[in-house]
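Page 42, continued from yesterday. The earlier attempt failed because a stray header line got pasted into the input along with the sequence. Redoing it now with the clean sequence only.
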Amino acid sequence: MKRFVKILTIIILPLAIIFISAYLYLALQGKPIAESNLTKLLGTKVKIDYLGLIPPCNLIIKDIRIEGFGKIESIFISPSIPYFAFGSIAFNKIVINNPEFEIERTPPPVSQFKKLPVLPSMDMLRKRPSKSGEKGPLNLILKRLVIKGAKVNFIDQAVGPNGVKITLKDVNFELTNFYTFRAPGVANFKLSGKIPWREGKIQGRIALNGWLNAETKDMLATLKIEDIDGIYLYPYYSKWVNLEKARIESAALNFSSNIHGFNNEVAAQCHLELTNIVRRPLKEGESEEKASKVTNAVLDIFRTMDQGKIVLDFTVKTKMNKPEFGFGDIRMAFEDKITQARNGRGFKPESVFILPAKLLEGGVRGATDLTKSVIDGTFAVGNEIKKAVEDAFKKEPSKK
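This time it went through. Structure tokens are written below.
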């Protein structure tokens, strides 16, 4: 028994000395070194309140403040020592608790994110300077990354003088099996969160699930955003829609997308559905404006083409390493659908008889007014169903 105790002491004592030495070193020198490296990496000043060591060799960092970007309550880091011994930067687990970030987009012509530090992209992560000055591969292994209770405030100043603030809260994210080099398997990810639009209104919900391969730039994912407040996002489409004249008081939408990526080429098949719309009733003696009549026509056309639903299906093509998506993609899809209606495509034979006999006589001239969606609406289509379909949808009359 004494021999066993001696052997155990011989094993534990050196480990305890190493641990105490590492703890003291981190307590005295760890914070300045971590702050300096993070400041260089992010390009903005970083301050840390506490950095400590948890046996056997895990790190805990608390109260991280990133100047001009946000703060993080705590980060738990569990490195993979065997991988580090073979020249890879590897982590068994990283847990980030309650981070809060603020991102601001400035007006054109400056379109970059003003407050967002220049974070390393996947291409940058695969390269690092070697001793000779040449770029070499960086083997990054992240077995599991967990983000809990995140909050992101996105302030877009590029859409008008007052801008738009979109908040994501209660965001939870998990990434597993992430490699920056070719490896068996793929990285899986999932994200969920809430979007509080306006006080007293229903909160939106976002969910993202899928996998990706950072080396080959392949991916497959599904994105769902439910209960989108269309009125809150009005500044994004105010140039081509007039809500007041259209008598639209509220509008709720759902968005979903199936995202496929191969060799950095990404195609996102998107589905946007108007689930609820509230129109302001006409006051006694109030005449209906042409913009409102055009809105009625557009809604009737959409319902006729999609069995009573108001939906928009479209595909966005972009790059995996530089994804781009905007309201311009939705507008183009809207215009394409109206063009289909004008040319008589998308209608089943029986759908013609669902259309009103008069498509807003005195309200619509053709595709131009419909695609503007509620702005002008300047002249009439015919009285009969056949004439309405053929004249209004197949050709656009010349202006008088």
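Notes: Helices lie at 2-42, 81-85, 122-125, 243-246, 290-305, 327-342, 367-372, 385-394.
Reminder to self: strip header lines before submitting.
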